[in-house]
TrEMBL record:
This is IPT/TIG domain-containing protein. Residues 866-959 are annotated as: Disordered. It comes from the Bacteria. It holds the Pfam family TIG. One of its GO terms (biological process) is carbohydrate metabolic process. NCBIfam families: Soli_cterm (TIGR03437). The keyword Chaperone does not apply.
Amino acid sequence: MTALAMSLLLGTTASLHLQAGPAAAATPAAEAAAETALGVNIAPVRDWTPEWPFVDAFRTSRPWISQRTGAGWGQGPALQLDEHGWVRSMEPGQYVDAAIFTSGDYPIGTYVVTWEGDGDVTFFGGGTISNRTAGRFEYNPQTAGRADYAPGSGGRFLRITRTDPDDYVRNIRVWMPGFEHTGEQQVFHPQFLDSLEGMKTLRFMDWMGTNASPYTTWESYPTPESSTQVRGVAVELMIDLANRVGADPWFNIPHQADDAFVRSFARVVRDRLAPGRKAYVEYSNELWNSAYAFQQTPWARTRGQELNLAAEPWVAGQRYQALRSVETFRIWNEEFGAEAGARLVRVMGVQSGNIGVARDVLSYQNTHQHVDAIAVAPYFDCSDRWIPGDSRTHFPGHPTVAPYVKEGGVDRLLQACQRSIDTGVRDQILRHKELADQYGLSLVAYEAGQHLAGILGAENDDALTALFGAANRHRRMRDLYARYLDQWRELGGGAIALFLTTEHLSKWGSWGLRERLDQPLADAPKALAADEFLQALRQVPVRVSAPTVTSLSLQSDLAAGGATLTLRGANLASTSTVRFGQVSAPFHTVQADGVTHLVVTTPRFDRGGVVDVTVTNPAGVSPATPASRFTYHPPPAVTSLSPATALTVGGTTVTLTGTALTGAETVRIGTVTVPARMLSPTSMEFTVPARTQTGAVDVTVTTPYGTSPVVPAARLTYVNPPRPVVTNMSASSGPAQTSTTVLINGSNFRGATSVTIGSQEAAFTVLSDSQIRAVFPPQPHNTWVNVHVFTPGGHSDAHAETDFHYIAAQVPAVTGLSVTGGHADVPHTVLVNGRGFTWATQVTVGGVPAPFTFVSSTQLSATFPARTSPGAADVQVTTPAGTSPITASGVFTYTAPPPQPQPEPQPEPQPEPEPEPQPGPQPEPEPEPEPQPQPQPEPEPQPEPEPVVTGLSVTGGRTHVPHTVLVNGQGFTGASRVTVGGVPVPFTFVSDTRLSVTFPARTSQGKVGVQVTTPAGTSPIAQDGVFTYTAPPRPVVTRLSVNRGPAKARTTVLVDGKGFTAASRVTAGGVPASFTRVSDTRLKVVLPTRAAGTAYVQVTTPGGVSAVAKAAAFTWVASR
């Protein structure tokens, strides 16, 4: 009886509580288990398995079947058996059968059958018997003349038809060919031993019949003397096999075994296991698995609930596993005593696909302190996204998935197996390794390998079964097992036991490394991979040469991986791993013309760069050479945005910093792509587009090598802009009759949605973030309105600078010209005097438009164009109120230009007359003397004419402004100085008869003479060279935008009126106030603080001081 059972009877669980404390130090045996070592699960002993572990085939026979002559199969009387299972007696007509060769997969040859006792023994179902003697005959399972002894053609039975109860038939042996005389010492078949060569761990879960085991007491468990071993192999035989192979045995204690069973089992192991060998001890098998075959699971759950370990059955079962495992380990520790640490590995089996099971079992009452290793079964089940449109992964053996799996074929299935290894399996191993490291435990694998099998009815799908079988027989399955095992080692796994040695492919699965014990390695891809892994671990001698890489069909690609390349070289058939740098890559072997090469899928390598591609086989790693180098081109990555916020109105310039940006021409902001400008290989600049919503969007960059990942550092947050602010406008008033174009100055104008003036909308154009050009529509005369700018950030506030005054424009009138005439061949700058010139839009001279500049409401400065003919031209001014009438005071007379002096004509030289010829001979003419140069008289110097001023284009103007005047006359060539009232002034030489002169402003009015100085002298002062300065008009204040304000705070006021052009001072009640001139008709004044009361605002200009008027009154109000 177990301690747990006793606790149940006593109604207490006090004895079950474990001691808390820190994790125990790893024992020497546990440390050894942490080293990667390959082992295997031994296939169950059955009459139908294609594995023959014993030289005595009867050890694998099925238990006796009682038969009766004339009755149906198995309808004989109850069996009378001794303690070893031999038939002691039979009733008349009774006989017994034992199935022994039902699969047909046994060595061909002559078997020798021997027994002790008196009785008749034979075979039926085929084959021939010969050389019969007492207690012996020879048997050949093959039928004479037929080669029918092949897999699946079995059906051979040993039959007893008579036995003497006093000397009953017993100790039957069916010696395999060649072992009649050595079988008692040999025990295990050499082919079986050869298949286990190098294995470091032998797991006996199936040999012990662990799943649904009926054994509770030691006396009921089979012994070496038992007639058959199919109901559980004797512990002595398991130990002897481990000793013979040189492996560590792994025992699974039956779930119902009492403490005496556990203790007796442990003693046998202690005394029989060879020195230096370790025993792995595990309580039962997969106590989390609720499949029908695992009857131990519901049993443990029931026990756990009876002990009130948990309300949920599965949790109760897990905790019962923890408690009973610790009790089992305690008994083994007691039996092994001081050697326990060196000879025992205490194993806790958990569910590989559910890390929660391991956490709960190990943490419950500090179970981890009594455990050396966590055991998982990291099968690769080839789950994948089989169903179109479904992003989830599904097991290929499920009925709803099977149609898609069959459609994909074997290649698609093997690809899914590869992904399963690289993703799901890897994740399971990593999670359990982390937990094992947390507790200071080893991570081992109690079972491992592929897991292709139909479930829930799909096992009856013959096409699916055939597909799974084809995948298991495919040479790429060797590649998958090689990568799978190497990954286990890479991730720090310890002992790993593949499942299992030998078994037929069937609808229940393809579990065997071999399908038949004597199957050649070349035909068994899983066994071949296992053998190569044994070589790599040096568990068997290395039988291959080290690999080399001679070429890669592709030598560069994207860092995202996924490209396929062909790797060629030498000694590649036994490849277990292909690595790019330190990263392993999926691969499979291909044979062409007897040469093996590898088809490799490049793994991901985000940081990019050059890596060496290496191949590993059991003999070692290929050397790195130029031919094995591979270049990764990394995708771009964004590391920062500056700024990381942008206005919804757009226009924000952002600098993006990152890596591998070369080749990028655009940036994607959310769903919008915008152009970008490269600043360097690690930075670029782009302008943010407008967006209607606030919030964060992801920024990505795309190059020929991929798109940058979405990361927090690449997140741009849109925010509304600050409210717009209007500081001033280019005009504070305009005509009521027509539209007025105004420049609005301020800030935060980008993205403006509207501009209003009063209740009306104004057409506008955003020139910059600080300026808008708006067209104010006409409104009624004397209307005062506020201007507002609207953006997504809000609207601007109203204040004095946003006031706009609509004024009815007067029909203009021209009352005089500063110059009333001039030569037609040159333009003339003329001051046009009159009234109503505010908002002038055009000046014409004789109907021809002339450029002009607004000076004041009573004066314009216009440039009268030259013309081809002399004559009078009417000057007219146009404003929104109309065009000025033609008046005599607005006539400009163009005169013909003065004639230019002509040079005097020179007389033509006359030739001298030739002498007439004389009759008769003529004397030789005397040579003419050479002409001698005659001195020429020096020309007498002509005196330069003195300069004379004959007229001015403008004869008068205001004192407070400068004036540009054309000075007409003669003798101006070489002019060096011009004075106005004796004061030198700047000038420009136009011609000998004209200078362009700037007459300065001055403080006093009156007449001044104009004089020109040249090398010939200075012109005299003449009546035509006199300019009259007149004082400007006295300023007038007509309105204050605000006429009340706090006495203790300054108040900003717009002062409207006229004559403000040269304003020099503003006072409020005689106290100076700061001001800014907006126009000739407006000042912006900041009134000072003062005592409560009323005072008048006055403006001072060169024309005087504005009068005290009601319109200029301002009242300071005391605060309450």
